[in-house]
Amino acid sequence: MIDEMETEGRRRAMGALACMPAGLLAQRYAEVTASAPPALAVRGPEVGLVMLRGRAGGGGAPFNLGEASVVRATVRLGSGEVGHAVILGRDTGRARMAAHLDALWQCPDWRVRIEAEVVAPGLAAEDEAVLDRAEETEATRVDFFTLVRGED
Amino acid sequence: MYVAVKGGEAAIANAHRLLADRRRGDRDVPALTLEQIAGQLSLAVDRVMAEGSLYDPDLAALAVRQARGDLIEAIFLLRAYRTTLPRFGYAAPVDTGRMRIERRVSATYKDLPGGQLLGPTFDYTHRLLDPALAGDAPVEAPERRALAAVEDCPRVIDILDREGLIEGDGDPAGEPGDLTRDPVSYPVGRDLRLQALARADEGFTLALGYSTQRGYGRVHPFVGEVRIGLVDVEVEIPDLGFTVRIGAVRLTECQMVAQFKGSAEEPARFTRGYGLVFGQSERKAMAMSLVDRALRADEFGEERRAPAQDEEFVLEHGDNVQATGFVEHLKLPHYVDFQAELDLVRRLRAEAGQRRAERGEETR
Amino acid sequence: MGAFATTALATAAVAGGFADPVFDAQAVFRLLMGAMAEPGTVADLGARVAAPAPLVPAAAALLAALADGDTPVWMADPAGAGEAAARWLRFQTGAPITEDRAAATFALLPERHDPVGWASFPRGTSDYPDRSATLLLPVRDFAGGDGLVLAGPGIAAERRVAPAGLPEGFAAALAANRAGFPLGVDIVLVCGTAVLALPRSTRVREG
């Protein structure tokens, strides 16, 4: 049960690190990791592809839709924790920072700080961008009204 | 027959230099930036990503610039680039039901749950050239309407599905084939057809879709729904055993509803064609869904008579990089082929002349 | 640390890959190509990787160079005794680890096994003979065993080898494999950091 919660927490944090605005990540990373144990490069950052998939009809059998550029990195702390990052695009610096934060997240004392100072603001920025767009789209909603025709 | 011929190196080098010059154009005019292309010609960039089969707006913008705006050339550049990269893996199938909607319309229900959201569409514009756009007139910020929360938009298809009036999505299991990895052999499954259509030439797909409406293949379609927006991409990280979000991509999805009369065994119900394309490209997604439906003729016991129902015809001719390669190769030196044909024509004429002479006819 | 109490395993999985992925992979590829072109010769791939047991260093280097997400690797007991090796391969190559022989592109054979089982690995099809498995078979030594006489492409007349630690019935299995040419599996013997290739085109007899 604790494992599942931990997995879910890490999953959420990795997603936030990958999806938050690049500038915000760089700024938060610089602040948080100023006093952190350094990341030792294990692999990458390197650019490659993932094949994206759709489903026939939206929910049926999967099919290969086309590829997307991704960058990935794996780092290790001196104490052994291994951090991974996979992010759409080709921004190698971003992958290195996200992998380092993922490794630190696994240390209990760092986790609290990363959650509060990186993951939470990252998710908030994402939500704000989503709401922004949604409100612009919402203004283009068609409000149908019925015309009264003839007399009775 | 091809024979290696040396020569022309200087001409080729100078042609490349001339190309670079013409691409740049008047040096007094500022060069286009990739941000300008990605930001202001974004639908061209979307098309290059879709048919280049690589989602990367920055690279697609670079390709558009490098190709001087020749989109098929840009698509070729992107396809060539992708072959140089390792494939790290496969993403989990995207969940378009959780799309963050930027446009969503249905032609089948007026007051459908989720509503009609027009988004940034060319529809309802008058298609009159706007002289103001020749300059840099200021543009208003979009109107907004407050929302309490962003909710998932229900699928139109599910409304019909609840009554059993439309075919369902089918079995979600299975490992799809990949035509970029394995040679295609016919007949193929719907998985490969959808992959091929998603990267097929927009013009070709459009023409085929149009042909189904004009009677070349029976479709009788309604747009159940078109939706455009951002969808999360998730991959499994090797060694961790769970999937994580790695970003979002903009996709256009079309659910085309088509009639099906039913048979002795099955009650009448609607069938569906499906389109899913990188970027904002409603025309392509709609055409794709028409062709997908037409290609399912065998499933519904329909006679296959039209080009859009012939999967080999569609799959073998829809790829514009293949097509342009084969058509354009004709301009490469065929000196020896042509000499052989020239000799043959001369010989045939000479022989025919000789026969006429032998028969005592007058030669011309 | 909950789910990540396995930090040691995770650390082992990400350690010991190629120091220089591009040049190491190219070098291994070139050496393997030479070994395949001249069956029976021993090619030392060098100490380029450090992989967990039971992965033989040469097999690990070969897979690090050739395996990827499109080449399933078969191994015995990937969740048990082979777990560390399986995790290493998954991270280093991206290859799926499979227990289904028919799905394998590469197979990491255990030292003691029955070559009759080779028949269940893919042997290619007449349209695509290349869709076959490459079997990596650990041996004790490339010398000191029973003699084998090799002939065929890449060998001027005959080449004699005597690998030690081959499983019972090895020569007969190779002959059966050869009989289906151009279909069949390719064999790479591995020992330490070195390999000896026996592609399906090679005829093998005892002697």
Automatic annotation (TrEMBL), chain B:
The keyword Lyase applies. GO terms for biological process: organic phosphonate metabolic process. The keyword Lyase applies. It holds the Pfam family PhnI. InterPro entries: PhnI. GO terms for molecular function: lyase activity. Keywords: Lyase. This is Carbon-phosphorus lyase complex subunit PhnI.
From TrEMBL, chain C:
Keywords: Lyase. GO terms for molecular function: lyase activity. GO terms for biological process: organic phosphonate metabolic process. Gene3D superfamilies: Bacterial phosphonate metabolism protein PhnH (3.40.50.11310). Pfam families: PhnH. InterPro entries: PhnH-like_sp, Phosphonate_metab_PhnH. It comes from the Bacteria. This is Phosphonate C-P lyase system protein PhnH. It comes from Lichenibacterium ramalinae.
